[in-house]
Amino acid sequence: MGNLKNAYTLPKCWRGATGLPTVFNPKEKPWIKPENESIETIIAHIKQCPSGALSYSLVDGKE
Question: Where in the numbering of this chain does the Divergent 4Fe-4S mono-cluster domain appear (predicted)?
Answer without folding.
Answer: 12-57
